[in-house]
């Protein structure tokens, strides 16, 4: 399936006046944000500041809760993600997400890779074995697991993999659809420094294929990886700027206090 890749720096996603409530509790306030193609945007902030809720708003997963309510707009490729008429399959094809503490499905490694592809691909119906083989190999090669797992594709993904390999497999699951936007929710929190470095290298390579939004509690990681950094505090965007500028010369005192460890 061929998908036109937006030009570098071309805005692909616009968040405008986004507010989110869980029941009567408001957790995001009047958020405005632009995400551009082929860039890594890090979202930083203290625990429970709204990072995960923001990511969930960008692919509609927050709608899985009956108590969630939102106002404002989120548009991807000029389409309103919350338009009731928008095909959920379109969202699934264009937005991939790896949650914090993601785990492979308790099926084979092969079926993990094919699950989302078979569910969301535009051409419905039974997938040919040759096509499935190609999809699986390409996805595992992209995340550096093909050599390690090519002879073990039929075994369960729920056992025998390291934390780093499980995370790579979860990333591989979303790649066959060639998403326009990849959302990563604190993916390295369970990894040791060596595993974290390997995943950061993978994220850096994937930015050539899609825009990436990385929610992270690791300020050093945000500074190393991202082109743009967004600082959130108590559900509000305090500052969004090119990463070098935000970390070296933040415009807001609150941002400076956070990155220098004087507040949470």
* Radius of gyration, whole Å: 18 Å
Q: Low-confidence spans: pLDDT under 50, at least 5 residues? A: 1-5
Strand order of the largest sheet: 6-7-8-3-9-10
User: What best-fitting shape do the alpha-carbon axes yield?
Assistant: globular
Query: How would you name the oligomeric state of the polypeptide chains in this document?
Result: single chain
The CATH architecture of the domain at 11-106 and 180-259 would be 3-Layer(aba) Sandwich
CATH superfamily of the domain at 11-106 and 180-259: P-loop containing nucleotide triphosphate hydrolases
Which class do the helix and strand fractions yield? Answer: alpha/beta
Give me the number of helical elements.
10
State the distance separating the first and last CA atoms: 45 Å
* Proportion in helices: 25-40%
Average pLDDT score: 92
Largest pleated sheet: 6 strands, mixed
The CATH class assignment of the domain at 11-106 and 180-259 is: Alpha Beta
Q: What fraction of the residues are assigned to beta strands by DSSP? A: 25-35%
Find the CATH topology of the domain at 11-106 and 180-259: Rossmann fold
């Amino acid at each position: 399936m061929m998908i036109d890749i937006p030009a570098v720096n071309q805005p692909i996603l616009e968040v405008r006046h986004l507010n989110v409530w869980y029941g009567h509790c408001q957790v995001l306030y009047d958020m405005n944000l632009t995400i551009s193609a082929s860039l890594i945007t890090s979202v930083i902030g203290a625990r429970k500041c709204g990072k995960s809720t923001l990511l969930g708003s960008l692919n509609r997963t927050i709608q899985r809760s009956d108590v969630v309510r939102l106002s404002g707009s989120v548009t991807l490729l000029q389409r309103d993600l919350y338009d009731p008429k928008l095909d959920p399959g379109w969202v699934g094809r264009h937005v991939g997400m790896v949650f914090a503490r993601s785990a492979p499905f308790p099926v084979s490694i092969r079926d993990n890779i094919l699950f989302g592809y078979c569910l969301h691909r535009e051409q419905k119906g039974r997938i040919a074995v040759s096509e499935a083989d190609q999809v699986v190999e390409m996805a595992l090669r992209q995340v550096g697991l093909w050599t390690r797992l090519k002879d073990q594709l039929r075994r369960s993904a729920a056992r025998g993999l390291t934390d780093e390999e499980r995370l790579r497999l979860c990333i591989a699951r979303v790649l066959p659809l060639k998403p326009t936007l990849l959302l990563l929710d604190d993916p390295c929190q369970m990894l040791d420094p060596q595993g974290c470095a390997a995943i950061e290298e993978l994220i850096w390579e994937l930015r050539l294929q899609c825009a990436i939004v990385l929610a992270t509690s690791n300020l050093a990681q945000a500074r190393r990886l991202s082109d743009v950094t967004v600082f959130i505090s108590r559900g509000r965007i305090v500052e969004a700027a090119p990463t070098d500028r935000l970390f070296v010369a933040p415009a807001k005192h609150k941002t400076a206090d956070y990155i220098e460890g004087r507040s949470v």
